[in-house]
Every structure is written in C-alpha cells, then in structure tokens.
Amino acid sequence: MNKASIVIIGGGPAGLSAAIEGAKAGAKVLVIDENGKPGGQLFKQIHKFFGSKEHKAGTRGINIGDQLLEEAKRLDIEVWLNTEVCGIDKNKKIWGIRDKKQSFSIVADKIILATGAIENAVKFSGWTLPGVMGAGAAQTMINLNRTLPGKKILMLGSGNVGVIVSYQLMQAGAEVVGIVEAAPRLGGYGVHTAKVRRAGVNFYTSHTISRAIGENCVEAVEIVQLDSNWKPIEGTEKILEVDTICIAAGLTPLTELAWIAGSKFVYIQEMGGHVPAHNKTMETTVEGIYVAGDVSGIEEASTAMEEGRLAGINAAASLGFYIEKEQEERTKIVWNGLNALRCGPFGHKRKNAKDKILASREG
C-alpha cells in the first residue's frame, strides 16, 4: 500500500475511535501502532469508568478496548502493528519502519495523530537506580505482563493515576508503603483516594522524595516534609524501606510528529505543556492533519475517545463522505458529550484550557 484515505498514527482509545468513525463513513482507513497489540492504555485499565452510560460508565477499560477492537475488525479496518512512524510532512507523506526491519512510505489524504503521551520524570538523588519507574510502567507490568515490579512500593503523586495504580498494585500482591504528595492536598478523585486509604495506605501530603537509597537497586527511600514555599524542612526526613519507587507526576503530550509536520503550537500548562493548536474539528494548522487524545492535551480515556470520534467524523467529511449538514449534526453530538465530560471542578479547568487551544487555532 502506498496510498490511503485516512491514516491514523496511534491505535489507542483515540486512534481506534477515529478509525471506527472514518470507516463507518465509508473511508479506507489504516491504523499504525508501534505496539504488538492495539488498544493502548485501555488494556491497562482494569477499573470501571465514570461518567454516563454513553461514556461507558461502569465498564472496565479492558472491556472497552475489546469492544473497540471487535468493531474495528467488523469494519475491516487495516492495522499495522509493530510499526514506527519516523516522520510526516505537510504534504501528508508518512515514512517509518515495520517490524524493525522494513522501511515504508505512504501518502495519506488525511492524517490523524493519536500518539498519546509520555510519563514525566522527577529528578532526585538515586533516581536512575533500578527500581525507580513511572506508574504507567508498573501498570503495564502488572496488568499486561502479569509481572510484579516489586514487593514494597512507594508512590510519588496522589493524582488519579497514582492512587489507581497503587490500588492495582495491591490487588496484584504488592505492599504500598505510602503515597507521597508535594501539594498540601490530595489530587485524585475522592472515591479513589478513600478506597486506597481504607486499605491502610498512608498519605504523606506536603512531602517529596529527597533520595533513593541503594547500591545496585532501590533498597529504601528518604522522604522529607515541605514548607509553604515548597522547600524541604530540615530535620523532617523519614526513611521508608521499599524496593520500588513509582512516579505519577503527570504526562507530556507526544507531539514530535506534529512539530515535524509544521503545526503551530500553544503552551497550556493544564493540558501538559506544548500542544498542537487545533479547531473544533480537531484539525491542526496544517491542512488535513488532525489530532485526538492526549497529544492534543492531557485528559482521560473517555475524552480521548470522543476527540477521536470528532477527528474521524471531520476527516471523513472533508473527503466528501458526509454532506455539510450531516457533519455539523454529528460534530455537535460529540461536542455535547465532550462538554458533559468536562463538567465539575477538574473538567471545568480542562474545558477552559481547551478553549484556549481552540482560540489559538482560530487566531
């Protein structure tokens, strides 16, 4: 194949949702993913989703992933796995490597970038020791590879990722010694933090890690209390015996391909940093290149799937598969769902941040 109607880079929740919408409209769709199995983060998520019935509330992420894969198969969507995209250009030419040995190039009428995000690191003394890892890496080990990363674990970060992965580590048989949070308040939803606290896990707010202790691997960790100016308070150091330190300090959008293609960017701290400017159809400033999911700003899997739907609908419409009225109606329905997801204190902040991105694209 050297030509495709819609090429989607990234086979996670956003990418699969975009592919399904594009294929349902009648477009020939190709999904490219660097992993051995599509589905992305969904197959790490054994917890049930929140929201409404329309947003898969009460369904576990792994089951949602299975549903998306089944629909993609039914629609005969072509998927290239173990395939790395190395670059794209403004003419929508894509090149990369398949199976780590065969190069390829392909020209797309439309491209949807659904490349996701990467975990943020936190630097402290000993942070490169074996046994220090991202929370997402630990989640991959237990939920995908069925491997326990350690027996006694400290989690850095009390957001939803930190508390959810902590609970899943306990389910897998590990002891979570504590959850450390630099802020004076916990960051995750109350339902998650309460469940972990009831399980006996200690939370250390206004604390951070000062050093990891060990010769060839993590053997212990030293934490320290922070004052109101986020400075360590001398004499408050505490040493905890652990063999693993997990870091849940947020995510950064994986935007390299959008940079290479020449997209305009905007810096929005609440959305993870620099993100591609895009409009309400998810199209970037490079005509015919769309974004969806965490690459367009860090949110949640439910939001990623809705953004994928938006990108798929509008990419297909731009190829003539929908008349303008149909495009507007379908886009409006998805936007209503997105606005519903962005209700509440956390969602409201993200809605405001997303509005800044949309404004930057229009400007």
Short structural summary:
Helices cover 33% and strands 26% of the residues. It is of the alpha/beta class and 363 residues long.
Please give a handful of descriptors for the protein shown.
363 residues, alpha/beta, FAD/NAD(P)-binding domain, 2 domains, seven-stranded mixed sheet, five-stranded parallel sheet, 9 helices, 19 strands, elongated, oxidoreductase, Metab_Enz_Cyan_OpOx_G3PDH
Could you characterize what this model shows?
This protein is of the alpha/beta class and 363 residues long. The protein has two domains: 3-118 and 251-362, FAD/NAD(P)-binding domain; 121-247, FAD/NAD(P)-binding domain (3-Layer(bba) Sandwich). It contains nine helices and 19 strands. The protein has helices at 13-25, 61-74, 135-143, 160-171, 190-198, 256-261, 301-318, 324-341, 344-362; strands at residues 3-9, 29-32, 78-80, 83-88, 93-98, 102-113, 117-119, 132-134, 152-156, 175-181, 202-205, 207-213, 220-225, 238-240, 244-247, 251-253, 265-268, 273-276, 289-291. The strands form five sheets. Strands 1, 2, 3, 4, 5, 6 and 19 form a seven-stranded mixed sheet that branches. A five-stranded parallel sheet has the order 8-15-9-10-11. Helix 7 (301-318) packs antiparallel against helix 8 (324-341). The longest helix has 19 residues, at 344-362. The radius of gyration is 21 Å and the shape is elongated.
